[in-house]
Design a protein that fits this description.
Layout (H helix, E strand, L loop, with lengths): L1 H114 L13 H19 L4 E2 L10 H29 L5 H18 L6 E2 L1 H39 L2 H26 L4 H32 L5 E7 L1 H4 L4 E6 L4 H11 L6 E8 L2 H11 L14 E2 L3 H10 L13 H24 L5
Antiparallel strand pairs: 1-2, 3-4, 3-5, 4-6
Helix pairs in contact: 2-5, 3-4, 4-5, 6-7
Length: about 475
């Protein structure tokens, strides 16, 4: 029994050892499989990570290239923008420099005139450019004579209590005062002269010359014949202008008679229709802007109103076209070139035509219509074929239109001098006025400056000097 019991124990022990061996083998296999699986997973994952890393590197490279490309384009665009700004400033600066240079030259010339006792000419805004050129030439001739010491005569040597130096200084004073007094008297005579009183003005000038000669007889200081004749030439230039204005008045009456006969009110009607279209279009824009803010029934009502306004404008435009076509038969009219410094700035003019018997009525209407300041007139030319001349001028400056969409807006970015050159090419002669008064605009600036100054003074006065 012990033998069998021992045998059973041996068998059990053997089986146990066998089971342990099998279990050990299974664990080893499992671990090996697990290890291999892990290696495979890591390999796959590593490959995946490597692929992702490559893709990420490629993406970064693409982004880098895009950034570099975009950066270059941005830099080029930025530099081009800066270049345009610099060129704009250069152009603007050149214009300002030219203006300042012209002003400096003018002021320097006036200073030279004043130094020799010649008061610079003062022109009115309705003085023609042709007159200004003539008077400026007269002044240049007078200045040359004065600067050479030939405007007055006097003793070459004169002593005062035995002193030649004091005597010479007194002679120069006599000459200067005589010249200054003569020029002042001339200005007074010239300003009171009328087209029919030229001879009277000349006699007055001779009388003044004689009186000054008596006052300066101590030093024998007199106005020279050469300078006196130059002043007579200037007086003659002013007188020719007065005669010209009288002829223009008579000519204007003839022009009005022609317009009255041919016009038949077509020109007035066309102008009125154009104004009405402008007003209605402005109201339409306001209504359209308001409609965008409305909803529901209010929006529907506004839309109906807008459609009605469009219909009315269309009817007015058709009537305007018919009136304009009929008006082509009446070709006589005025070509005007006007500007509005306060409303549109420098370098912008309006080129249009009117058949009004009094053309300034049309200009005043334009100034009262939709701009804050009145227009200044550069020229008003009476022509036999106004529609054709206007059309040619508009075509000439078509690229300089302010409003390229609406050809009825007759504003152009050109100077009066450019328009004059174009009208000269068309053999249209008229009086020109380059200097603009811009009275209301300039007065507004002065009033605003005074108000700002007063406001600043009030603010300063309200702050205590010490606390």
């Amino acid at each position: 029994m012990n033998i069998f019991h021992t045998k059973d124990k041996v068998i059990q022990k053997h089986n146990k050892m066998k089971g342990n061996m099998i279990e050990g083998i299974d664990i080893h296999v499992y671990l090996s499989a697990l290890f291999c699986g892990a290696i495979i997973v890591l390999a796959i994952k590593g490959k995946s990570n490597h692929t992702k890393r490559i893709e990420k590197i490629a993406e970064i490279q693409r982004q880098k290239e895009n950034l570099e490309k975009e950066s270059i384009e941005n830099q080029v665009a930025k530099l081009e923008g800066e270049l345009e700004e610099v060129e704009r400033k250069i152009t603007s600066g050149q214009e300002h420099f030219k203006t300042l240079e012209e002003s400096t030259e003018k002021l320097e010339l006036e200073r030279q005139y004043i130094e020799v006792g010649l008061q610079p000419p003062v022109y009115r805004f309705d003085d023609r450019e042709e007159l200004k050129a003539q008077i400026n030439k007269c002044y240049a001739d007078q200045y040359r004579v004065i600067s050479r010491g030939l405007a007055t005569n006097a003793y070459s040597k004169w002593e005062w209590f035995g002193c030649e130096k004091t005597g010479a200084r007194m002679v120069e004073d006599y000459r200067y005062l005589s010249l200054k007094a003569f020029n002042a008297e001339f200005d007074a005579i010239r300003k009171t002269m009328r087209h029919s009183t030229y001879d009277t003005a000349v006699n007055k000038l001779h009388r003044v010359n004689g009186q000054l000669g008596k006052l300066g007889e101590t030093a024998n200081a007199t106005i020279s014949a050469e300078f006196f004749n130059l002043k007579i030439n200037e007086l003659n230039a002013w007188h020719r202008e007065l005669l010209y204005r009288e002829r223009q008045k008579a000519e204007r009456k003839k022009q009005q008679a022609i317009l009255r006969e041919q016009n038949n009110q077509s020109g007035d009607e066309a102008d009125d229709l154009e104004d009405e279209i402008s007003y209605r279009s402005s109201d339409l824009k306001k209504a359209q802007a308001l409609a965008l803010k409305l909803h529901g029934a209010s929006a529907k009502v506004m839309e109906e109103r807008i459609q009605k306004m469009k219909s009315e404008i269309a009817k007015l435009e058709n009537k305007f076209q018919r009136t304009t076509s009929q008006a082509q038969i009446t070709k006589v009219g005025y070509i005007y070139v006007i500007s509005n410094l306060g409303s549109f700035g420098e370098g912008v003019v309006k080129i249009g035509m009117t058949r009004r018997l009094e053309p300034m009525d049309r200009i005043n209407e334009l100034g009262d219509a939709s701009v804050p300041f009145k227009f200044d007139v550069h020229t008003m030319a009476f022509v036999q074929n106004a529609p054709e001349i206007e059309k040619k001028l508009h075509r000439k400056f078509d690229e300089q239109r302010v409003n390229v969409e609406n050809n009825r807006k007759e504003f152009f970015k050109v100077s009066p001098q450019q328009v004059k050159a174009a009208m000269d090419e068309l053999n249209v002669s008229s009086d020109w006025y380059y200097d603009v008064e811009a009275k209301e605009y300039r007065e507004s600036i002065l009033i605003r400056e005074a108000m700002n100054k007063q406001s600043h003074e009030n603010l300063t006065g309200s702050i205590p000097a010490s606390i």
